[in-house]
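Milestone 3.1: sequence recovery, worked example.
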């Protein structure tokens, strides 16, 4: 089985974004030898770098060189800092760079992320274009930007980019959690302005009638390694889980660990639902984070006494590398 592997090379960051899930306090870095261990233990389909600003890992360039040597496609989520500090020749080796933008305009983006962030990203996009690396915009759906996703998809398209939308997860606090109404309103607005390239978000694809029958990819085809060396089914997973060394020493398939099985467990209340084969109970990390581990996803329309279908325009473009590695929706405005 091939895995999409998410690596958090560090939890250090140059920014202090209020919504961010990365652990604060002590800084941890994955080492080159840990990354080598992972690549020997797991059949790696692709690597996605997230969690902190990865260029702050002291062995960042060595690790990228190693992954390149193994011919593993690597994508990087960045606020622009790592891209700015990466030479052209190394930048050119990435399969895709995802720049994080949560608002369609400079003023709001900089107010949320820090002065100069918008311009740094714009010059990063320009450089990626020059060296021939694909670029997308990565946004988090929150209760403060839910009405702006359509506009953001247009902004991304004006940069020549797809927009990837992930959902805010209440890891450090619930302050930015969209309500049920805001969640569905956001997708209605988004789909009015943009065509869907892929959607692995289980509830959204279910109520768009996409019928992928996958549920969440977390714990199934995707694994995450934290800067501390923990192996998780999903970056937002709140439970203690198996460590990298234990995993390698035991030779166990990570999907057989208790945490991974739990990430795929369907809540009993969902078992009789007509949609269960497709949504499989929605996001289990969110359920655990909200202390609802045995209950359906808070964004489930059936749970909220509703039944409807969204009918987005679905693009027939080629499958995207990171389309199914996390719960995400990728659109083109
Ligand atoms: C954690 S950052 C790490 C990479 C880089 N520093 C950046 O800003 O893109 C990766 C992505 O996760 C998003 N993110 C942060 N906290 C989140 C949360 N609580 N729920 C969902 N996404 C979150 C960020 O907005 C960003 O798009």
């Amino acid at each position: 089985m091939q895995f999409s592997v998410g690596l958090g090379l560090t939890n250090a960051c140059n920014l202090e974004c209020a919504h961010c899930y990365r652990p604060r306090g002590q800084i941890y870095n994955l080492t080159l030898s840990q990354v080598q261990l992972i690549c020997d233990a797991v059949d790696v389909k692709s690597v996605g770098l997230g969690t902190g600003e990865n260029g702050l890992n002291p062995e960042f360039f060595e690790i990228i060189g190693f992954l390149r040597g193994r011919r593993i496609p690597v994508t990087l989520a960045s606020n622009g800092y790592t891209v700015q500090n990466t030479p052209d020749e190394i930048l050119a080796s990435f399969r895709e760079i995802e720049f994080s933008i949560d608002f369609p305009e400079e003023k709001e983006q900089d107010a949320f992320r820090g002065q100069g962030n918008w311009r740094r990203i714009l010059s990063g996009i320009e450089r990626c274009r020059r060296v021939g690396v694909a670029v997308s915009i990565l946004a988090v759906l929150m209760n403060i930007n839910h009405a702006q996703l359509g506009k953001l998809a247009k902004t991304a398209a004006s940069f020549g980019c797809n927009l990837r939308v992930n959902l805010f997860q209440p890891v450090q606090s619930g302050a930015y959690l969209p309500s049920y109404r805001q969640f569905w309103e956001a997708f209605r607005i988004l789909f009015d302005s943009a065509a869907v390239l892929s959607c692995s978000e289980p509830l959204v694809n279910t109520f768009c009638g996409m019928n992928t029958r996958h549920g969440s990819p977390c714990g199934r085809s995707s694994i995450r390694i934290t800067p501390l060396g923990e192996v998780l089914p999903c970056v937002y997973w709140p439970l203690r889980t198996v460590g990298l060394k234990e995993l390698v020493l035991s030779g166990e398939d990570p999907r057989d660990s208790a945490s991974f099985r739990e990430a795929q467990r369907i809540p009993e209340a969902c078992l009789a639902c007509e949609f269960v084969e497709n949504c499989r109970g929605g996001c289990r990390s969110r359920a655990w984070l909200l202390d609802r581990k045995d209950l359906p996803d808070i964004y489930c329309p059936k749970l909220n006494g509703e039944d409807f279908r969204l009918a987005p325009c679905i693009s027939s473009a080629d499958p995207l590398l990171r389309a199914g590695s996390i719960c995400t929706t990728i659109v083109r405005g």
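The beta strands are 3-7, 44-49, 74-78, 96-100, 134-141, 162-167, 195-199, 222-225, 231-232, 329-332. The two ends are 34 Å apart (CA to CA).
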